[in-house]
Structure of Cellulose binding domain-containing protein:
Amino acid sequence: MRITYERVGETTAVEDLDISAFTGDSVGRGLVSPDWYLIAVEAGFNLWRGGAGNAIENLSISVDDQKPRRALGTAAPAPCFAALSVEEAWTGGFRAVVEVTNVGDSPVQGWTLDWTFPGGQHVERTSAGQVTQSGSSVRVVGPAREGVLEPGGSTSFDVVGSGVSPGIVSITCTPA
């Protein structure tokens, strides 16, 4: 199985990329089992005609053995999961869709999402419930009265933000 995450926007370098957001997203979507091993990480560019000067000059992957390791397969699965996908990006802003899914065995009535934007992005407007932002930290409280997410059910909302498109954002979903 191959799962691909693609950066949105141009960059000349990436440093200190924490891939736990990618693996957490893959586990949360049910694409991989939490007890599987990651065996490869690739980086590169898409080829195109006239793409002179394309090169990867240095790629290194290291694992910080000082960090405590957690047993991924031992915790109970989260009852809800959320993912942010950038749909459009323009100079100074972006539009993303956040999808909240009930991955548990019982109904979820209301939820709270917490995430941290990686580069100073700011929520300008959203079609979700109550949104608060302090610095890079965002909290969205979903409407508990407007419906129940049945097991396997999902809902989504738009987020319009300012700043550079955030790419992959790790979201914590907590049922109300």
Observations:
- The chain has one helix and eight strands.
